[in-house]
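Exercise 7. Given the encoded structure of a 144-residue chain, write a plausible sequence.
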C-alpha cells in the first residue's frame, strides 16, 4: 500500500479496534457489576452506548475502506478489510435487531431469565472475529 494510505488505514483501524475493545469488552460487562445498576437500567445504557459505538464503527469502516481502496492494497489487506466490514454488517443487520427485540421485551417487564436468547452470544463471537480481523489488518497495513 502507498505510505499515506497505509498510515491512514492503520490509524483508523487501530482507533476502531480500540473503541470495540473498550466498549464491548470493558464497559459492557462492567456496567452490570456497578452498584444499583439493574438489568433494565444496564440494558438502557447499553443500547445507547452500542448505538453510538455502531454509528462510529460504520463511519470508521467507510474510512478504512476508502484508505484501503486508494492505496493499492494486497490481497491480505482486502480480505481482512472485507472480513471486518462483513462482520460489522452482520452485527448491525442481523444480530442487533434480535438483541433490540429481546431488550425491548425485558424493558417492557418480561423476566430476563424466562426466555434466554443466543443473540448476545452471537454478537460476542462476532466481536471476537472482528477484533482479530482489525488487529491483523492494522498490523498488515503498517508492516507494508
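Solution.
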Amino acid at each position: 500500500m502507498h505510505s499515506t494510505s497505509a498510515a491512514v488505514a492503520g490509524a483508523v483501524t487501530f482507533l476502531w479496534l480500540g473503541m470495540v475493545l473498550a466498549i464491548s469488552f470493558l464497559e459492557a460487562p462492567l456496567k452490570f457489576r456497578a452498584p444499583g445498576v439493574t438489568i433494565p437500567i444496564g440494558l438502557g445504557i447499553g443500547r445507547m452506548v452500542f448505538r453510538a459505538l455502531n454509528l462510529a464503527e460504520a463511519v470508521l469502516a467507510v474510512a478504512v475502506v476508502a484508505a484501503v481502496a486508494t492505496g493499492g492494497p494486497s490481497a491480505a489487506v482486502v480480505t481482512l478489510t472485507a472480513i471486518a466490514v462483513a462482520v460489522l454488517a452482520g452485527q448491525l443487520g442481523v444480530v442487533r435487531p434480535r438483541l433490540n427485540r429481546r431488550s425491548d421485551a425485558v424493558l417492557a417487564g418480561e423476566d430476563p431469565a424466562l426466555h434466554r436468547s443466543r443473540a448476545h452470544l452471537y454478537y460476542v463471537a462476532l466481536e471476537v472475529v472482528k477484533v482479530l480481523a482489525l488487529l491483523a489488518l492494522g498490523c498488515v497495513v503498517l508492516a507494508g
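Remark. The first helix runs from residue 3 to 31. Students should compare their own answers with the one above.
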